[in-house]
Structures are given as structure tokens and as C-alpha cells.
Amino acid sequence: MNKKRPITISITSGKGGVGKTSIAVNLAYALMNQGHRVLLVDGDLGLANVDILLGISAQTTIRTVLDGEADPLDAVLYLKPGLGILPASSGVPEMVSLGIDQQEKLTTLLSDITSHFDYVLVDTAAGIGSSVLWLNHFASYNIVILTPDPTSLTDAYAIIKTIFTQFDRTLFYIVLNLIREPKEGQKAYETLKKVANQFLNLELEYLGAIPEDKSVKEAVRQQTPFIQKALRCPATRAIMLVAERIKNLRAD
Ligand SMILES: Nc1ncnc2c1ncn2[C@@H]1O[C@H](COP(=O)(O)OP(=O)(O)O)[C@@H](O)[C@H]1O
Ligand SMILES: [Mg+2]
Fold first, then answer.
1. Could you tell me the domains of the chain?
2. Distances (CA, A) of 194 to 18, 23, 59, 153
3. The pTM is what?
């Protein structure tokens, strides 16, 4: 088994409902379709959603592994030979704020598993709770998802500021979602970049924008990734472009 270090990427936002899980799931498929081995970790540890978007039901989750009831590798559900899912539990409030001991356990667990993959995508919960922050710290790269709404922009800035302040991270990757016209994404990105440069003196890099697309909503209802069923829809094309840019990232 190849033991090289994978490229670990968190998908985060501060705000809920901006498309983190939809983007994480479809990006995982996009990278898998390009021949990479991908692990998608449901980092919404107390309110899992990845399993719902994929129409799967998981008995073994991150929680059962942390509780010592299952082996880490047995918790990975393979949807395709190149795509593993590490599911989370739902309705478990204590998973939202992991203590130091649990965080260390999770680090060991993830480190054991991730070496089997080329890319590890970690979908995070909303908010800036300790689990969200820790998962962002664990990942080498942070993709912040936002929409052009002012509240989303404010929350994106808040999570960037928190990760920067707590972990000294100085480079963040940005994806705009739910844009209504092509220029809207770049414009919102420029606004965020200006504020981040001015007040925090840190770098942002634009990975692209996903349009508002009814295929995304339909795919959620059908519990299937849109990239697998709506091959030519605008959101699929946009996700494939983001995946191309992600391929420029290097393992550290
Ligand atoms: N590009 C898009 N176009 C249309 N609807 C979208 C798009 N992205 C997300 N959505 C809708 O927004 C809802 C919330 O998305 P989700 O991925 O669950 O967000 P989050 O994980 O950030 O809470 C989804 O149910 C989906 O229907
Ligand atoms: Mg989500």
C-alpha cells in the first residue's frame, strides 16, 4: 500500500446552508473521476449530512470508532474503489465540541486512514465550535465556501480570522456558491480579499464559483451527486474547474 502523505483539505464556511456538503460530495466525485483515491470525511460530527446526500446509511461512524467500538479502517464505506466515506453520527451534541483527548484520538484515527488516499476532503459543520476549528487545523488546506450574501461574507471572514488567529494560517482558498451571474463570484471574492488583506494581512486564493443551479437541488432530493447525473449542468462544469485547480495543491 502506498503510504505517501495525502493532500488534506477542509471545506468550511462559518455559516450554514451555503453549500459546503454539496460541494464536498461533488468535489470528491470529481477528483475520483480523475483517477485519484479520495476519502470524504463527514466532519459535521454531530449532525451528519454526507450520508444523506449520498443516500447511504452508516452503522459505523467516527463516533463509534472514537468510542472504541470499531476499527478506523472498518468505518470507511467504499462507494467506488477510489472513493471512501468516513461517516459521522447525527443528533449527538457531545460531538460538536470535542475535548483535547477526543481531538488527539481523532488525529490518530484520521492519520491511520488517510495514508491510503491521495486526497482527503473534510466537510465541516457550520459555526466556529472546537470540532470545526480543530478539523480546519488538521487539514493542510482550507477551502472557505461563501455566497454573495453579506451575512455569508461576514461569517466567512469570521472563520478565516479565527483560524488565522488560533493556528497562524495565512493562506485560504475561496469558492463562491449560489452565484446568479458570472461576475458576482469574482466581485464577492474581491470584497473578502480586500478586507482580509487590510485587517489580517493574509492571502486568499480564488478557486472558482458555482452557479445557482436547479440540478443541485434535484440531486439533493434524489440523494445522488449532481456531477454523476447532470453531466452538462452549469454546476458540474464549475465543480470540475474547481477540481482542476485543486490538483495544483501539493502535500506538505
Ligand atoms: N449551487 C447551488 N444551486 C442550487 N442550490 C444549491 C446550491 N448549492 C447548495 N444548494 C442548496 O442549498 C442547500 C444547502 O446546501 P448544503 O450543501 O447542505 O449546505 P451546508 O453544508 O453549507 O449547510 C442544499 O440542500 C441545496 O439544495
Ligand atoms: Mg453541511
1. 7-246 (3.40.50.300)
2. 21, 25, 45, 12
3. 0.96
